[in-house]
């Protein structure tokens, strides 16, 4: 959509908070813990379907004609606002919901115990990624969406309901961030400032991969994850540094990211 | 042609601060000095913005300037305000000269994100460097002026006057620069870079020069902020600091070299007021203010003045 959304980190944080608090309430009521995964998913749907359409319809749709950089600034402002909204709604105390994490138990692999939940997260991410790629490349909706992003005016002239596509795309994007947040929530303590860390990290991921490219994002995430783990293992003091170093390195040689698409130049 | 009133305006601002300074409260002088420091950074961002480039990492040079000024006091025991600012600017400019080869090639979002990455690299390095105080940073030597240490009541006044003189002097120089052929190239690059190249000018070179100037201004600002606050820490390079600088630049608009300083002062006021009125939700007030500005005043506060002039 040509939107670099800084507020995306807020959706992640919203998802994490909603997931943690709703699952906590669910378990406190004594409902079966096995269904808490559905509650996590439901929480992500709830916050993203509540907040994202509000932002897209109420604000962003008036701004599509403006510069990409202006949209970046608008989402930055939204990010500042949402950060405080989160603090107002959920307070500043950390939330812990470890049950979904502990419930799956762990797996003995080469003499080490691995929590199954981690495998579950990996599988979930892969499934969502593949599903998204399939939707974009193999379905009518996905192909139309690519057309809308490529040229809004022609798409509109061809009779596509462009507004609806923008709304749906933005909401789905927010939903993915919220799912990531709510399913990460059981593995960490949910504290204010969650969104700040994740947004800069995910920018590094998409910039390394190339903006607007799904395989690029997957590869970027893999690179960032591996580099970070290797670094934590061998030289922990360089952890923060190394991600941005890789990002700067990639941009130095491929100024538009690894999987960048050719860009038409206007004359 | 309309006579050029900008140097006169700059001189008037400095003169009024110099005369009114001794009667103003200390906290006001403090905000004023910080406004000059952040205004310098915003001035540099304004230069880049004229060419359609938004640097999301100007805090890199702000922080580099501050640490250069800090290191000067820590290792050489020099606390002179002017030396601190000059060294801050020089260090930032040298850094930008090297990084510029990398950045002058990228445009749009990528320029912003690459500069963001570079500033986060500095942040990451500073956080991990024990010698420079890690996350705590370190304190700056008390400010001196030509080797003389002023009395406690006069430090703020002298810092604001000398900082203001340097900042407004820089603004006057930038104003001159904007009228040179190289300076006039910036809006052309924003409009259509390929046409600029057809005319025989090098967009990359123009951006590189602009980038170094912007960094030098940020470095001077960093040196001034260091000596004003008396303490520096790696947060000066964090991306949220860069976000604040961009906020100021958007708030001010790109209409004139005076605008960034007014923008910085208003930002300082909004920031202090928001922090005073609602300490827990100041980010929200800030975000709302930014949003309203972008939506209703896309050309910044300065456009209020120019609109008035055009009407009269």
In short:
Chain A has 267 residues and is mostly helical. Chain A is built from 11 helices and 2 strands, in the order ααααββααααααα. Chain A is globular, with a radius of gyration of 20 Å.
List the helices and strands and how they pair.
The complex is a heterodimer of chains A (267) and B (312).
Chain A: H1 8-28, H2 36-58, H3 68-90, H4 99-103, E1 106-109, E2 112-115, H5 116-138, H6 140-150, H7 152-157, H8 162-184, H9 194-209, H10 214-234, H11 239-253
Antiparallel strand pairs in A: 1-2
Helix pairs in contact in A: 1-2, 1-3, 1-8, 1-9, 2-8, 5-6, 9-10, 9-11, 10-11
Chain B: H1 6-20, H2 26-50, H3 59-76, H4 81-103, H5 108-128, E1 138-139, H6 155-178, H7 181-191, H8 193-198, H9 203-229, E2 231-232, H10 239-252, H11 259-277, H12 282-296, H13 302-311
Antiparallel strand pairs in B: 1-2
List keywords for this structure.
heterodimer; A: about 270 residues; mainly alpha; two-stranded antiparallel ribbon; about 70% helix; B: mainly alpha; 13 helices; 2 strands; globular
